[in-house]
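SUBJECT: A protein chain and its fold
Encoding: whole-number codes for local backbone shapes
Chain under study, with its fold:
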Amino acid sequence: MIIMNTNIKKMTTKLNDPIGQAINEYSLTRKPFDIIVSSDMCDDDIIPIETLFRSFKDMPELEQQAMEMCKGKTLDVGACAGPHTRYLMDSGFNVFSIDTSPGAVEYLKNIGAQAQLADFHQFETKDTFDTILMLMNGIGIAGTLAQLETTLLKAKSLLKPGGQLLLDSSDVSFLYEEEDGSFWTDLNSAYYGNFRFKMSYKKTEGEWFDWLYVDYDNLHEVAEKCGFKSKRIMEQDHHYLAQLIYA
């Protein structure tokens, strides 16, 4: 599964903040120790902690493209250890970062970033932004396809007219592909991109949370309904970058 950001809907605490613990330990020791991602739909996966500290040259091409498309005042949602925030800061951007991991926000502040502990859906500010970033499968914070509209409308409320939301996600229908090329899905079940995850680091376990992987067609339909102009910028191995412009 692709790396996800950490802006999950339910606030974590310092007692169950595996991402924050991992970030701060690695920043001090540089000793890698994987973050374990458990799912109710597939086998456990890992997030190598080093990837959360990647530089621009180590970013996938899709993320590099998103960085190059940023403009104006930028909100980095689910900033985690701030690979995108750091790049934008170094490039002279006015960037503000939010995350629900107390440890991540503490680290971001320590490196000089403007950062706030906040759930995107409850985030309030008098500012509006030219660009909102939801990378590392960031639109997953919607939780389910049914909640995607709510998430996009929240993003719209934080954008200036003409502003853009840059996001990536994956069409995970390939997980249901049969050997003959057909697809198996339960028509009576919820959308196939609705997942539940739990993260753990060493002995620290987070809580289960909902996470959405949305195919581009569904994203486009909901985005248009919310008043965005939607464009798929690029796609690689079922993973795509989309630009939603507040028309």
